[in-house]
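WARN retry 2 of 3 for item q-0093 after timeout on previous attempt; input resubmitted unchanged.
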Amino acid sequence: MARNLTPKHKLCRKYGEKLCDSAKCPVTRRSYPAGQHGPSQRRRKVSGYGKQLREKQKVKMIYGLLERQFAKYVAEASKKTGDTSKFLLQYLEARLDNVVYRMGLAPSRAAARQLVSHGHITVNGQKVNIPSYRVRVGEAVALKTTSKQSKLFEKTSETMAKKEVPSWLAVDAKALTGKILNSPTIENPNFDARSIIGFYSR
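OK item q-0093 returned
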C-alpha cells in the first residue's frame, strides 16, 4: 500500500499553518519556513496557479493522500451534476480512516489509517481493512469486539467523550461506535476546494 513518506511537518512550516493532527506541530512555535533564513524570509507573492497548487498540496497533506488517488476523487466529483467542490469534500470526509479519526477512535488520520489497515474497525458488524472505504449514510462504524479488550484501547472511551464530532456523525463513546447521519460536510475548512477544482480544470 502506497504511503506518503515526506517529512510530516514540511508543508506546515512552508505555508505557516497547521495542516497535521499533531499537538506538537512545530508551526505553533515557529510559523515561518525552515532553514537559516526562515525567520527573516519574506513570503513571495504567489501567482494564481501557485495558489491553486498550494490548496491541492494542503488537502493531500491533511488527508494523507497521494496524487493518483486524489486525482481520482476530483475526476469522480467532476462527473456529477452540481457543486463539484462540495462532492469532493464529501468523498474525502466519507473515507473510513477519516470517519474513525472524526469519531475520536484515533488521535490522527495516520493513526486511524493504521487501525483500519490492522483490522480493528468494523462497518455494520463486518471487518473492513481498507482505509479508503467510503462510508455511506446509515452505516455504523465501530471498534471490533475483540479489540475492545486490548490495553491499547483502555482510555479510548474517555477520549471519544471529549472529542467534538461533526453534526453528520453520531457517536456512542461507551460502546465505541459511530453512525453516519447525513452526507459529510465541513463547515470551516482550512483550504479552498474550488481552487483545487480549478487546478484540475486547466
